[in-house]
Predict the 3D structure of the following.
Amino acid sequence: MCSIIGYLGNTAASHLLVKGLKRMEYRGYDSVGIAISNNDKIEVRKGVGKVAEVEATQSLQALDGHVGIGHTRWATHGEVTSKNAHPHKSSTGQVAIVHNGIIDNYVELRQKLQSVGYTFMSETDSEAISNMLQLVYDRTKDVKVSMMETVAALKGEYSFVAIFEDGTLAAARFHEPLVIGLGKTGYFVSSDVLGFAEHTDEVIYPDNGEIIVIGSNGLQFFDFSGNPMRHHITKVSKEFADAYKGDYAHFTLKEINDQPESMVKAGENHLNEMDKIVGLLRTSKTAYLTGSGTSYHAALVAKHIFLKYGKLRIEPIISSESRFYPDYFDEQSVVIALSQSGESADVMETVRIARSRGSKVASIVNIMTSSLVQESLHSVGLNCGPEIGVAATKSFTSQLSILYKMCARLSTDFNLPDFAEISGHMVETIASQRQIQEIARELKNASDIYVLGRGIHYPIALEAALKIKELAYIHAEGLPGGELKHGPLALVDSNVYVIVLNPSDSTHLDTLSSAHEIKARKAKVIGISDKQSDIYDHWIRIPHVAEPLSPFLEIVPIQLLAYFAAIEKDADPDYPRNLAKSVTVK
Ligand code: F6R
């Protein structure tokens, strides 16, 4: 999604803002801009592209002044153009805003504002905020009141930061993230701690439905009715300032390589919380796992593990679908939300629905300061460090690791996997990347890739297809092997590649039969297995492990394959087009 940042202090704002935006670029990266308030005037510079590109053409850091706001955009309303890039000034230019989220009633607000003479330069929903602020400010000359009346008029989910011509910085939060950094030289307001982590580890998390005003009276918090609010200062982990890719060409490659270590560490610093969630699973009548994208795929693997080895039925729910099935949840349910960011709007909505129906909510999440943690009774941290690459990699194997650890705590029939051994096998698998790179060179021209997996391998087939789509921009579909003959086989011909997830376990012979059916239709077969077969055009060897553990190993070569195919296609694997790391809109 978009990232927003603001700074007010006694040092030049523009370079702090640009640096912060670069750190948060994972959230959105189609256009960039900053606005600085100086000598009672607001100046805006913005453009299409990544921060470094816009910086090069617009000299963002040349703007002078100690108060400013900045934005990287992930387009929702309005195309990717300079005009639609943020910040947006009000039509009289005394207020500018940056916004993350969606204003549902922007058409109505726009018409109302136009009818009293305000003009609009962009197609965005966001511009309604700056003009609304201006409307109230013209009447009251009071920033707090302008903020209160504006949030009262807005419908939707949002956070925004505004600068006023007099140099006041103000912000509001409603179901979108916002964090305040207390730096030595001044105050930061940001979507993510990463926006200012190198300047301070002292932060305040405003509650949902709060207004922040930073001006001549210092830093003040109010609820939407204008009542003052107080907050504790929280110290955040320094590791979140440590988002560097080291010697790796891309964050995605670094994060794939982090997995042998991150997967072992997953959840280890929250063992008590893990026990509490297992306690909830034991005592609840119905149990659900929810998540989006990759996190949902982790839920599907967990369903299999808990049912087959833990003898416990847990129903996975795609978060974006939950609003259509609210009857799922009741007082006797536990809902475990899986999310790397802890901010996905669909996951947050599911959690709210579950809570409103009296269910207990717990979470497995990477960002322990996220909204999801705030809404959960208990949370276990992935503990895998920042995941900057937009495509989820290490967060997936860390989610699996925690879910397996929970299953082992729940059931005496399921032994805790030897994670050190899996880690060693992962290292071996990563070491075969030269061969994978060769295959990626061939694969880059494929128009369609099918990934087949049976049983526990099916969710990995789904995850594999997602990685190939996101990173390599190739149409890919994950299928349960047995379903091939029920339809998809009609599409298989010599232009198609099929990846079979085929370790030597209970699914092996059936999947080998599918490989034969595919080969008979002249498609190319890539086998991911510990066992060679003549049927494979390419064999990617993975070490032999017990059946429930193979997800940890078979996803790694696919992540690498998708990464190298992206490189071959000259795509940026860290920032795939049209996507964002933290999807905070519905
Ligand atoms: C896939 C990917 C997305 C996320 C999804 C959920 O590589 O990154 O599908 O998995 O948007 O995000 P979180 O886990 O942050 O809720």
